[in-house]
Amino acid sequence: MSQPDFSHDGIRTARGTAFRYLFMLCALLSILTTVAIVATLLVDAVDFFAQVSLVDFLTGTKWNPTQDPVSFGVLPLISGTLVITVGSAMVALPIGLLTAIYLSEYASERRRAYLKPALEVLAGVPTVVYGYFALVYVTPALDTFLPLSTFNALSASIMVGIMIIPMVSSVSEDAMSAVPDSLREASYGLGATKFTVSTSVVVPAALSGIFSSFILALSRAIGETMIVAIAAGQTPRMIDLTDPAGMFLNSIQPMTSAMVQIGTGDIVGQGPAYKSLFAVGLTLFVITFVMNLISEIVASRYREVYR
Fold it and tell me: Quick check: helix, strand or coil at residue 63?
């Protein structure tokens, strides 16, 4: 019968094996959690589509799950989600990218050590605080020169955009910092200015990482709940592309806000109104999954490999 190995090498090997299985267990738990969430959405969504036509759900232009006549067209909710996403992107993407360029190319090491953690504090602020701030402070401030409704998409978009700025700036800055200094030095050797090096050399070289940060931030904006539930309102309506101002100045209802309304409403637990919560959730999951899939394809297509 073999004796256990209590030597230094034996203990180190056993420790390595234990950590390997621990890490494998954590990875499996993450996968199983995702599978369980998707399975739950699918089971209840299938029950919903057994009562409501999938075609009517995907093409309907009216959302009214609780009052007669009931209607379950998800397009108004998708429209509201797109408005918030586009509005927040107009705030977060340029500000986040310019901030990343400054941190990577212009800020000193000491300044970066203070600014980057301070910026990332924004990601730690509870989203309900953002929503309350939008409703109580941002909307009245904008109302002084814009004809805003009390609940509107503009205030919600601004606050969602501010919330996701750290995602854009942090990931983009990491991608730019990974660009080899040899590329910068070669450009400086040719007489390029710092601005030219930053915008014409560093940014294109880090494009895959920058694009990934955009998709990550927009996926976060699509799934944001509390800000839009508090500040955007609960008025499901189709967007009118001929009236861009009206899209942002009036109340809308994104998919996440509709899910909150259904989940907290006084509805029958097994009725179609309750089951529609899972159908909307599944739709939101599919949209986010497709966006992340596109991000992976684009990132792998434009990823630069440096030696």
Answer: strand
